[in-house]
What we know:
Number of helices: 2
Order of helices and strands: EEEHHEEEEEEEEEEEEEEEEEEEEEEEE
Helix content: under 10%
Strand order of the largest sheet: 4-5-6-7
Mean pLDDT: 87
Strand content: 35-45%
Distance between the termini: 69 Å
Shape: globular
Largest sheet: 4 strands, antiparallel
Low-confidence stretches: 1-38
Amino acid sequence: MSRRGATRIHPxxxxxxxxxxxxxxxxxxxxxxxFATLTRPVxxxxxxxxxxxxxxxxxxxxxxxxxxxxRRVAFTTTEGTWVSLDLSPDTARVVMELLGDLYTVPLGGGxxxxxxxxxxxxxxxxxxxxxxxxVFTSDSSGSDNVWIARADGSAARxxxxxxxxxxxxxxxxxDGAAVFVTVVEGSFQRAAEIWRMDVATGAFARVxxxxxxxxxxxxxxxxxxxxxxxxxxxxxxxxxxxxTPRKYGSRNGAASVIMRRDLVTGADERVLLEGExxxxxxxxxxxxxxxxxxxxxGVTALRARDLRSGADxxxxxxxxxxxxxxxxxxxxxxxxALSGDxxxxxxxxxxxxxxxxxxxxxxxxVPF
Length: 368
């Protein structure tokens, strides 16, 4: 058999190469079991067909160019789906994502002002503790990365340079010196980890690795591991959601628990909470209140736990379904916010931004 377009067969795999030399490019590795069931003429036909298809399409892919000019698309809406948001420290305005752009709207309601737009998909904005900056994720570089801009969306800078990874739910440390973010890497063997980025230097290091086993071979399955960091006000603790996907072929669903990592000792502790599958923790500014979501009888609710007394109550019931049975590519639930005095909760529910009083439970829509 000539070397050009040849196949090399060994017990584990078959590799198709082009170029007829050692420098030929390996295009795809196929299980040898598949080729064992084919006759040699059929195998040659399949390989030639693959080679012809790749040869024909590769120049088109390499020569693809972005659109020459942007196209303006105008729309009017008063609702949004899976809207992650945050509340400014002075409680004057809400920053939110909508269709891959970032907007601000007064807490009392009003017209939404776009502060970040363009071809990039930008999402999950969070105000810095002093209210002067925003952190968010953007794929402007070709892959998700952490970006920081001024509070009005200007002077945006890319702060991480990770390739071929998804990033979710960046969260500031209480002193504003660091950002914690969930990083999901891999295609089939995906894993979710929490990394820390130093704001001053850009140093990027893993803090919490996946401890929940390998990924499951299901398209509608979240990556196992750690999601949605929630730093404590004293900077010592990091709360997060630990997700274990449903096992392939099992009737038992995916599971989540809320964990607490001591950043000094490295010790992990499970936080015992109400309901099934607790997830998406958020701490009040004084560290006395823990907000989280959990399910009971198929209904997801947002709850508040007083960490001093242990009292626990439902704040908002009937949230949208979490992403435990999906890919969770934008976290298990959208980001929500709590005012600095711990009195006002802001979240998206049923397409609308809701402002909820934690004192009496009264909810008001924030129109935009």
